[in-house]
Amino acid sequence: MLRWLPENASTYGGEIDSIIAFIYYVTLAWFVITIGALALFLILYRRREGRRATYITGEKLSEAAWILIPALIVLLLDLWIDFRGADAWAKVKLRVPPADLRVQVTAKQFNWEIVYPGPDGQFGTPDDLQIDNDLHVPVNKVVRIALRSKDVIHSFFLPNLRLKQDIIPGREIHAWFQATKPGVYEIPCSELCGFGHSGMLGHLTVHSAEEYQQWVREHWPSEEKTSTRNLAKGDSHR
Predict the structure, then answer these.
(1) What SS3 state is found at 121?
(2) Taking the model in full, what pTM does it have?
(3) Averaged pLDDT for residues 202-226
């Protein structure tokens, strides 16, 4: 397998890795065959005394076959790769499971704004929790992300979870993942977005169920705190 890839920590990472490996080995085999054929032809048809070079116009079918047959083989290999990748594509893009957790991620030069809906489960309410560059999720739970951009094109990338999604200004694009291993993973931006692109780095922390609940208790505003804060705001406007 491709051991230089980051450790897989996603439910669909295995399918994506298998497609990457398949493309790699097909390309490698075709490269070896092509270079081998060129080397063989260089030896067999090298310049020799008493042999004149032949001018070939490519009009005969037997001559055109040297182009048509390799082109057909490449086409069949491409279709084979597409066929093998169809299931992985459908699993990631089409067969999205019900979400256990929903998060909004807004990209801007040069950080990630991460918003949780809070205890009421609704975005855009006073109990929302916003954290920059730190995404916290429970292990083995389906997380749906609504991706937005405030300025230019960015790309949300979780290498360990095999998730990469471009973010286009003016659109909300949805993605999902299900992390299978607790740990801390990088969230770089993989689309050149300006002079600070290289420093646009966040982190995904995958907690165990108990640790995630503890994190929620410590960081999310409780309903009681939210009600108190709303009352205070109301009194200040009187």
Answers:
(1) coil
(2) 0.79
(3) 83
